[in-house]
Amino acid sequence: MDRIAGSPHTILNSVHPLRRRSVRQCHKLTSGAILGREPEASEPHGGHGPADTMDRGMSLAYKHRVLSERVLRTLRARDDSQGELGRPLMIGIAGMPGSGKSTTADIVCRLVNDADPSLCALVLPMDGFHYSRKELDEFEDPEEAHRRRGAPHTFDGEAFVRTIATLRRNGCENWPAFDHGVGDPVHGAITITRENRIIFVEGLYLYLECTPWCLTHGMLDDCWYLRTTVDVAMSRVRRRHMSLGHTELVADHRIATNDRINAEIVSADAKKDIDLRLRNFPPAPRVIDLVIDADESLNDI
Known about the structure:
Helix content is 36%, strand content 14%. It has a five-stranded parallel sheet with strand order 2-5-1-6-7. Strands 3-4 form a two-stranded antiparallel ribbon.
């Protein structure tokens, strides 16, 4: 994997000037309008069109389609104004566990590819940057590290930032996947080439204020945050645990000792200058389709 020499500021100075941030001071680029309400009179419009002011009554399938149109517009606008054909458009999708990150990324990516297969849009999950179980064994407190696996300190955040920076600079890179059957990352499992014009990066900690995660935000072209309450998100995570064969007692224990803690970290420490906030996307169906059988009533929260 390529490494970028120099300080965190060197990495930040390599990103596009419109998205550049310092480590401690971020420049607000757009209104960060929340889907499900009209912007206040004092709020500037984010400039992306319908995706900034989606109505709660819209179907989830329609919302996903509007998001895909937002991505296509953003790519065209960037290429027309800056001529950056050599690197991919990079969309960040973050939120707490159970917020619907993977579902949103997968569906919107598929819609983009359906609209223009030549774009070869691709989803890159953050999960591949988990430290391996062997690496967790070498932590100062291995038992705590395994128990809290999924917390920020159990990811190789520095490798994540380096890989994002290399991908942005070169337009190609290898990306790790996570093998759930084995329970460990697989390095270099995903190959990104210059043919992949749009990249969706999804994960829990894309927008944290702390180092090294704070460096990621400035390297993304559009930043989406899936907002929901911790209780709603944990109810989805509980169903997920039980669908994997865990008892209610085990599911509740995992939530109390790990998942809820991680959710509260994401909720409390996420950057405020996010381009788009998506309200309460329902949990993923087992088979993703345009006709989504999901709990739409969650949009009323």
